[in-house]
Design goal:
binds phosphoenolpyruvate; 11 helices; 338 residues; binds manganese (II) ion; Alpha-Beta Plaits; 8-stranded parallel beta barrel; alpha/beta; elongated; 18% strand; TIM Barrel; 4-stranded antiparallel beta sheet
Length: 338
């Protein structure tokens, strides 16, 4: 915490600030400056509430400097982390990883069909939701455990590892049992009880950014996972709510280099939910590679008009395969492999 004194503060004001810091059991370091005086606070084990100091007379502002994401941040780990999904496949480490598949598992035939198509198109990981967080309670909620069994069958046939979303402790236990990567969706980014449970598991977690979450809040959610012991965390930017209504969400590609500067964790981008429109997915996937993302997660459906969830943003398999070819070529310029 750095406490900035205002231009009119008195010696007594400064002494009171120092006394308050010491009374809390921390150290106060008075930093005199040409134009302003500040008091640095050290010895605090975690973040302090700036208001504790801002209410004191003569104080202009208290600025927290202790990061609340010690493990997700770069203070403790400078080098980038690479997250192993299965032996031989890491996110980070110079590889651009492509996850693809339907929004939801709708049937055995639909999932196996699309799994084969995304495998042929060059995907590294199969996605598919068995538990769907739907805005309307009347919308298709997912096939549950049966859906996870179908994904496991698709993995056995194609060899693609599987990522699937968990919504609560019950679905988390099931997703852990069948999937290779546990997805925590945007709506659950701040479901702290769920994060704590997922943090105790030994499978990687794909943590989507919340619909209205700042990068700082996103990293604090990652901290929940890391602080429970799960070091295999992959961040995923999936678009945020803004005033713009020309796309479903506003894909915040700024967040990729911002998160990468603050954190060592790999960052994926989801241009499907980020735009909500299939014709925007390829341009934003290419932009994701250019901005330095470690991969993308893309919704693919061969019969989007029949899709039970997110049909308008689903890419046809042929377009997906063409996109992967372009992403491979971009790797030659941008310096990643696929
Ligand atoms: C999904 O991946 O299907 C999904 C629901 O994503 P998000 O949590 O980003 O909305
Ligand atoms: Mn979806």
């Amino acid at each position: 915490m750095l406490i900035l004194m205002d231009g009119e503060h008195t010696k007594a004001n400064l002494a009171e600030v120092v006394a308050r810091v010491e009374q809390l059991g921390f150290k106060a370091h008075v930093i005199p400056g040409a134009n302003s005086t500040a008091v640095g606070v050290t010895g605090n084990p975690g973040p302090l509430d700036p208001r504790v100091f801002e209410v004191l007379p003569g104080v202009k502002q208290a600025i927290p400097v202790t990061k609340s994401y010690k493990l997700a941040g770069r203070d403790f780990q400078h080098g980038d982390s690479a997250v192993e999904i299965v032996p031989g496949l890491k996110v980070g480490a110079g590889r651009f990883v492509v996850m693809a598949g339907p929004c939801a598992v709708e049937s055995r035939e639909q999932t196996l069909r699309i799994a084969r198509q995304v495998k042929a198109g060059g995907a590294h990981v199969l996605r598919g939701g068995a538990f769907k967080p739907r805005t309307s309670p009347y919308a298709f909620q997912g096939m549950g455990e049966e859906g996870l069994k179908i994904l496991a069958e698709a993995r056995a046939e194609t060899g693609l590892p599987v990522v699937s979303e968990a919504l609560d402790p019950e679905s988390l236990a099931l997703v852990y049992k069948y999937a290779d990567v546990i997805q925590i969706g945007a709506r659950n980014m701040q479901n702290f009880a769920l994060l704590k449970e997922a943090g105790k598991l030994d499978k990687p977690v794909l943590l989507k950014r919340g619909l209205s979450a700042t990068v700082d809040e996103w990293l604090q959610s990652a901290e929940y996972l890391l602080s429970e012991g799960n070091k295999r965390v992959i961040l995923c930017e999936r678009g945020i709510r803004t005033f713009s209504s020309h796309t479903r969400n506003t894909l915040d590609l700024n967040a990729v280099p911002v998160a990468q500067k603050l954190s060592h964790l790999p960052v994926l981008v989801d241009p499907s939910h980020g735009t909500g429109l299939r014709d925007k997915v390829a341009p934003l996937a290419k932009a994701s590679a250019a901005v330095g993302a470690h991969g993308v997660i893309i919704e693919v459906h061969d019969r989007p008009a029949e899709a039970l969830c997110d049909g308008p943003q689903a890419m046809p398999p042929a377009e997906f395969a063409a996109l992967v070819e372009v992403l491979k070529k971009l790797g030659g310029v941008l310096g990643y492999t696929m």
